[in-house]
Amino acid sequence: MALFKFEEHVYKSMLQVYDRTEESMKEDVQRLKEWIKTQPHLPEVMDDKRIENLFLLAKCSIEKAKQKIDNYYTIRSLIPEFYDKSNPETFESKQVMEAVYVIPLPMLTKEMYRVNVFKVKNKDIMNILSPCNVAGYEFNMFELRLAEDYMFGDVIIFDVENVGWEYIKKLTPSMCIKNLAPYEKVYSLPLKAIYMINATPMVQTVMNILKGILKQKIFERIHVYQDTSILHERFPKELLPTEYGGTGPSLEELDRIYRGKYVEYKDRFDQLDKLRVDESLRPDPLQNDEILGFHGNFKKLSVD
């Protein structure tokens, strides 16, 4: 069962935006696949679907796509604390699954953006979690999306109602910047908006951190609301889950589907545990700041 219904008009719109045809897209994917074979430090030849999605995320630039493909593997070694316990079978990932919903909704917006819901379901478990493990789980979801979704852009609904101070105080600027690095260097999805709903006073702390690390144009796309009424102004009822007064599948229903997907992709996640670049074979030595330029320098990140 596919997570996301293939919508041909979305795919054709993406090709049109990036001045591609189905035939030229296949040719570009093959060019990138042949390039991967010339990179001895990379641990595998990536499959066509993931190459295509990373190429689209690079706005169909061959050179930028090469960087994303390289970063996809390299960053796992540079930020091991996010990936070492991210396999869905680990105790840490199962804790995250019990604590929080990280749910891309199946229906696209009229602008062809994917809406993602982040909602804490168990505050007590959430408070004891490491942000590293939460980030690793989020990246697992992107792994599923690389395999099955077409990603024109994202909208994020962040329900902060049950987020406690015990968790918030772990979100240091350094931790947040590291968390954003994979989005900037690998996924870089166009971000239309972030809606923080059911806001509590602690949201201001989060906003202060984000203002210090995000570029202004991205920060201005964050909107804070005390309740959920904005969702009915922005999205059709059939898109929203039942928890927010919609007629779409509930977060719990979707969560069960995603858990089933982690079982279906078990071999891939087991493989990812072992996929690391061999720096001794890299044709051109990697400079640390090519990916993690924030060490000792809180530069602002642009997540598109």
How would you summarize this macromolecular structure in one to three sentences?
The protein has helices at 8-17, 22-37, 48-57, 62-78, 80-83, 91-99, 123-128, 131-148, 165-168, 173-187, 203-213, 216-219, 229-234, 251-264, 266-272, and strands at 100-108, 114-120, 154-159, 191-197, 222-224.
Task: Tell me about this structure.
- The protein has 304 residues and is of the alpha/beta class.
- 50% of the residues lie in helices and 11% in strands.
- The protein has a 5-stranded mixed beta sheet.
- β1 and β2 form a beta hairpin.
- The C terminus is likely disordered.
Number of helices: 15
Mean pLDDT: 89
The SS-based structural class is alpha/beta
Order of H and E elements: HHHHHHEEHHEHHEHHEHHH
Major sheet: order of its strands? Answer: 1-2-3-4-5
N/C terminus separation: 31 Å
- Tally of DSSP β-strands: 5
Strand content: 5-15%
Describe the biggest sheet? 5 strands, mixed
Radius of gyration: 19 Å
Topology:
Layout: H1 8-17, H2 22-37, H3 48-57, H4 62-78, H5 80-83, H6 91-99, E1 100-108, E2 114-120, H7 123-128, H8 131-148, E3 154-159, H9 165-168, H10 173-187, E4 191-197, H11 203-213, H12 216-219, E5 222-224, H13 229-234, H14 251-264, H15 266-272
Parallel strand pairs: 2-3, 3-4, 4-5
Antiparallel strand pairs: 1-2
Helix pairs in contact: 2-3, 2-4, 3-4, 4-10, 6-8, 8-10
